[in-house]
C-alpha cells in the first residue's frame, strides 16, 4: 500500500468523506467507506480503543494519544500519560485485536508495551501486563514479550506476592520460578564477589611486578648504601631495604 493511499484512507476515517458505513462506539460515530450501506455497533470497547483499531486498519499504525474529547477533564487538557496509563491503553488495543482476530495489531501493541517496560521499568506496569495474559487468545507475542522482560527482572518479579495470585501461572510453576530467581540472585552475588577478588589479585600482581622492576634497577640502598642490596617486599608490596627499611619505589 503506497503512502498516498494510506494517507487517503486515514483522511476518510478523520473526515468521514464519501462514507457509506458507520461504526458506533459509545455514542461516537466512525464513518467508513464500504461496499454497502451499513451500521455496526461496538459496545465492549471505549471509543479511543475503537479509533486506534480503525486507524491501524486504515493506516497500519495508530496514535497513542487519546482523542481530543477524551483528553479533557473539567475543560482542561490532561497532562502527558504516565507509563502505567500508556501500558493500559496498549493492553486495550491488545484486547480488541484479540476479540476481532487482528494478530498484526496485537503485535504492534505488544511492541509498544515492550518499549515502555524497557525504557521505564516498573514492576506495577509489568504486573498489569501479566494479569492480562490469561484473557488473550491470539496475543502469543505479548506472552513471549512478558516472559523475556520477566527474565531480566526475575528476582524482583517472583519476590512480589502479587505474582503468586496471577491466573497466568500455577503453584508448581510459581515455586519453580521463585527458586530459579533465588538461584540467579545467589549466582549474581557470587559472581560479584569473584570479580572483587579478581580485582584485588590483579592489583597485588601489578604491585609485585612493580617491585621486581625496581629491584632490577637498584644496586644499593640509597639511604645506607651498605654492601649489596639486601631487600624484602613488605605487606604493602613496597620494596624495602633489609638493613634500614628504606622504601624503594619508582
Key features of this structure:
250 residues, mainly alpha, 3-stranded mixed sheet, 3-stranded antiparallel sheet, 9 helices, 56% helix, disordered N terminus, BTB domain-containing protein
Note down, in words, how this protein is organized.
- With 250 residues, this protein is mainly alpha-helical.
- It is 56% helix and 11% strand.
- The chain is built from nine helices and eight strands.
- It has helices spanning 3-15, 47-59, 83-99, 103-119, 123-132, 140-152, 154-158, 161-164, 171-217, and strands spanning 21-25, 28-32, 38-42, 72-73, 76-77, 231-233, 239-241, 247-248.
- Strands 2-1-3 form a three-stranded mixed β-sheet.
- Helix 1 packs antiparallel against helix 2 (47-59) and helix 2 packs across helix 3 (83-99).
- The protein is elongated.
- Mean pLDDT is 76; it is low at 1-9 and 73-78.
- The outline comes out as elongated
Helical amount: 55-70%
How much strand content do the residues show?
A: 5-15%
Reading side by side through the largest sheet, how are the strands ordered?
Answer: 2-1-3
Largest sheet: 3 strands, mixed
- Structural class comes to mainly alpha
Distance between the termini: 72 Å
The number of E-state strands comes to 8
Instruction: List low-confidence stretches.
Output: 1-9, 73-78
Total helical elements: 9
Order of helices and strands: HEEEHEEHHHHHHHEEE
* pLDDT averaged residue by residue: 76
> In angstroms, what is the radius of gyration?
33 Å
